[in-house]
Write a sequence for this structure.
C-alpha cells in the first residue's frame, strides 16, 4: 500500500458515520465491485484495512483495486438488508455473490369447488382459487410430483375448455389415467376421493395415505374387485418409493432449510437442504468464484438474495456459522414479514440439527469437487490454447466476431462470448452498420470493433482476454489496427480461416480439404491446430456460433424489409393504416390471407380501403 493510497483511505474513513446502512466499493474506473451492509458503517469499513497479521486474502487485494467507497445511511439494519438486496440486483457487482431469479414461483393448486378438480401448475403467488401446495424448489421436483399424481391418482389433466368440448374420451382415458368425466357418467364421490388422496400426498401425509390405501386394497380384494385392488397396490408402491427417497431427518414436522458451506480460497459452494414435514425432500447447490470477502459476509448476502428471490421461507433456517446477533434479529424480522409467519435463524452446535448441518456441509464439499473438477478440465483446455497460440493472457473471456451481408445490403455483424469455456448468451450482441456502405467486409469489421472496443478504452466495459475474427490475414490486420488506434495492447487477437478445398484440373480427381488455420499477429505462417483437438473445436464452435448468430439477424432484417416493401406498395394506404394492419393481423401472411370482412374489422379501414388492400393481394381475374 503506497502512502497516497493510505492517505486516501484514512481521509475517507474520517467521513464515514457510525450508522447502519450500505457501502458501495468502486474500482479506479468507477465501477461498483462490491456492495455490503453493516449496523455500523465506520467500523465495518475500517475493519477491511486492519492489516496487522490478518491473513484474509481480500485485505491484501482490496487496496490495489479500490478507487472510492460510497455509503448510504438507513434507519436500521433491517432497512440495510432490504437496500443491499436492491442494490446488488441493480448493479450486479463483480465480487458479490449473484443469484439468478427463477422468474417463476412454482406451486401446484387444486380447486375443490370445481365439479371435476385437477392439479394446476401456478407460476405466481396466490394465483387462482383453491388449495396451494409448494412452492417447489426446482422445476424438476415439481414435474416429478406432477407425473406421479397424473399416473396414479386418476385426475383429469385437460383444461376446462377441452373438458367442455370433447365428444369422446382422450388418450389418458385409454391408458387408464383418467376416468373420462368429459363424456362419461363418472361417480363424482369416487372422483373426489381420488382428489382427497392426491391432496394428502401433496401435503406430505404419505404414511397416513399409505395406511388408508392399504386398507382399501384389502377391501377391494375381499370384494373380488382385483383391478381396483391392483390400482391401490400401484399407488402404494409409488408413494413408498417417494417416502424412501425422502429420508427422515428429525422428530419434528417443522419445515427447515439447512445451509452447508465449503470454501477453498476464492472459490466456494453453498448447499441448501430442503426439509419438509420432517423429511429431506431435496437439495440445491450454488457455486461461485472470485469471492475474496469473509465467509459471514458472503453467507449473509446470499441469504438476503435467496429468500428475496421468492424461494419458500420455512419456519427454521439452519446456518453453518453464527452471524451477528443483531443481524440475525433483523433477518428474522424481515423474513417473518415476507412469509407472514415467525422465522427462526439458528446455528446449532449439537444434536440432530447439527447433524443436518454436517450433512449439508458434506454435500457442499461434494458439489464443490464436482463443480471444480469441470473447472479444472476447462482450465487445462484454456492453458493448452494459450500455449499453442502463444497468447499473453489465459483466454477465460473470449469474444468472436463475424460480418454478414447480401449483395452489399443489410450489412450486419455479430459478437458471441465464451466465459470459462461456456457460452455467455447475455453478452451476445448484434450490430447494424451505421457508416459502412457497400460490400466491404474489412470496413464493416472495423466499424463493429471500433464501436465495441471504444467502450473498453473509455473504461465503460471490461475487455476480453482473446478476440477471434473470422477470416485470414486481412481481417486480422483490420482488427489489430482498431486495438492499436485505441491504445489497447493487452488483448490477444487471432483470425480463424476456414479450411480450403483443393482440386486438380482433372475431372475424376479427388477433392482435398486443408486444415483450418489460425493466423497470429507478427507471424507469417498460420498455426494449424491438431485435427479433432479440444482447442480447435472450441475456436470452431465460437466462429460458427458468431456466423450463425449474424445470419439469423440478417434474415430477420430481410424479412422485415420484404414486409415493409410489400405493404408500402399498396396504393392509397397511409402509414397509420399500415401500422394498424400489422398490429391487428401480426404478419404479412395473415394480411394477404384476410377476407374483406376480416379487413373491415381493422380500426380505420372502411369498405373502399378494404377493397383496395384485398385487390392488391388478390388482383381480379388472377
Amino acid at each position: 500500500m503506497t502512502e497516497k493510497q493510505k492517505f486516501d483511505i484514512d481521509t475517507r474513513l474520517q467521513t464515514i458515520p457510525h450508522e447502519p446502512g450500505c457501502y458501495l466499493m468502486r474500482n479506479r474506473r468507477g465501477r461498483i465491485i462490491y456492495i455490503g451492509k453493516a449496523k455500523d458503517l465506520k467500523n465495518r469499513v475500517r475493519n477491511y484495512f486492519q492489516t496487522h497479521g490478518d491473513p484474509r486474502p481480500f485485505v491484501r487485494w482490496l487496496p490495489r483495486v479500490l478507487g472510492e467507497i460510497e455509503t448510504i445511511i438507513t434507519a436500521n439494519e433491517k432497512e440495510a438488508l432490504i437496500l443491499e438486496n436492491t442494490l446488488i440486483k441493480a448493479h450486479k457487482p463483480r465480487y458479490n455473490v449473484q443469484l439468478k431469479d427463477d422468474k417463476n414461483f412454482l406451486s401446484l393448486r387444486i380447486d375443490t369447488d370445481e365439479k371435476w378438480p385437477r392439479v394446476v401448475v401456478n407460476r405466481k403467488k396466490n394465483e387462482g382459487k383453491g388449495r396451494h401446495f409448494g412452492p417447489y424448489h426446482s422445476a424438476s421436483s415439481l414435474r416429478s410430483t406432477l407425473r406421479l399424481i397424473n399416473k396414479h391418482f386418476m385426475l383429469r389433466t385437460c383444461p376446462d375448455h377441452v373438458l367442455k368440448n370433447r365428444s369422446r374420451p382422450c388418450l389418458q382415458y385409454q391408458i387408464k389415467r383418467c376416468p373420462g368425466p368429459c363424456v362419461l357418467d363418472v361417480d363424482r364421490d369416487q372422483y373426489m376421493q381420488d382428489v382427497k388422496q392426491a391432496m394428502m400426498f401433496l401435503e406430505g401425509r404419505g404414511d397416513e395415505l399409505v395406511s388408508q390405501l392399504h386398507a382399501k386394497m384389502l377391501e377391494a380384494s375381499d370384494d373380488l374387485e382385483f383391478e381396483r385392488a391392483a390400482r391401490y397396490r400401484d399407488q402404494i408402491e409409488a408413494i413408498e418409493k417417494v417416502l424412501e427417497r425422502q429420508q427422515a431427518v428429525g422428530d419434528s414436522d417443522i419445515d427447515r432449510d439447512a445451509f452447508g458451506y465449503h470454501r477453498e480460497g476464492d472459490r466456494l459452494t453453498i448447499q441448501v437442504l430442503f426439509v419438509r414435514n420432517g423429511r429431506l425432500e431435496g437439495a440445491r447447490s450454488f457455486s461461485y468464484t472470485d469471492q475474496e470477502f469473509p465467509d459471514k459476509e458472503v453467507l449473509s448476502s446470499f441469504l438476503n438474495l435467496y429468500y428475496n428471490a421468492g424461494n419458500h421461507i420455512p419456519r427454521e433456517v439452519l446456518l453453518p456459522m453464527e452471524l451477528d446477533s443483531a443481524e440475525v434479529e433483523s433477518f428474522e424480522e424481515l423474513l417473518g414479514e415476507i412469509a407472514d409467519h415467525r422465522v427462526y435463524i439458528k446455528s446449532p452446535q449439537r444434536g440432530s440439527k447439527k447433524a443436518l448441518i454436517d450433512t449439508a456441509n458434506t454435500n457442499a464439499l461434494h458439489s464443490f469437487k464436482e463443480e471444480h473438477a469441470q473447472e479444472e478440465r476447462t482450465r487445462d483446455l484454456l492453458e493448452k490454447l494459450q500455449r499453442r497460440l502463444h497468447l499473453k493472457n489465459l483466454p477465460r473471456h473470449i469474444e468472436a466476431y463475424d460480418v454478414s451481408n447480401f449483395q452489399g445490403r443489410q450489412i450486419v455483424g455479430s459478437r458471441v462470448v465464451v466465459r470459462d469455456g461456456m457460452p455467455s448468451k447475455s453478452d451476445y450482441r448484434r450490430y447494424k452498420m451505421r457508416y459502412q456502405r457497400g460490400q466491404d467486409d474489412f470496413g464493416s469489421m472495423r466499424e463493429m470493433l471500433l464501436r465495441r472496443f471504444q467502450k473498453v478504452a473509455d473504461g465503460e466495459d471490461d475487455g476480453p482476454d482473446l478476440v477471434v475474427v473470422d477470416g485470414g490475414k486481412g481481417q486480422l490486420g483490420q482488427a489489430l489496427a482498431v486495438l492499436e488506434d485505441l491504445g489497447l495492447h493487452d488483448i490477444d487477437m487471432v483470425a480463424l480461416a476456414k479450411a480450403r478445398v483443393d482440386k486438380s484440373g482433372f475431372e475424376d480427381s479427388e477433392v482435398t480439404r486443408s486444415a483450418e488455420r489460425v493466423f497470429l499477429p507478427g507471424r507469417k505462417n498460420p498455426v494449424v491446430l491438431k485435427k479433432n483437438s479440444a482447442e480447435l473445436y472450441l475456436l470452431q464452435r465460437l466462429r460458427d456460433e458468431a456466423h450463425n448468430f449474424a445470419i439469423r439477424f440478417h434474415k430477420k432484417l430481410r424479412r422485415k424489409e420484404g414486409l415493409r416493401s410489400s405493404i408500402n406498395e399498396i396504393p392509397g394506404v397511409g402509414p397509420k393504416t399500415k401500422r394498424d394492419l400489422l398490429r391487428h393481423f401480426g404478419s404479412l401472411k395473415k394480411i394477404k390471407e384476410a377476407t374483406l370482412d376480416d379487413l373491415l374489422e381493422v380500426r380505420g379501414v372502411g369498405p373502399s380501403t378494404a377493397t383496395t388492400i384485398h385487390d392488391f393481394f388478390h388482383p381480379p381475374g388472377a
The longest helix spans residues 351-388. The radius of gyration is 32 Å. The chain has 20 helices and 20 strands.
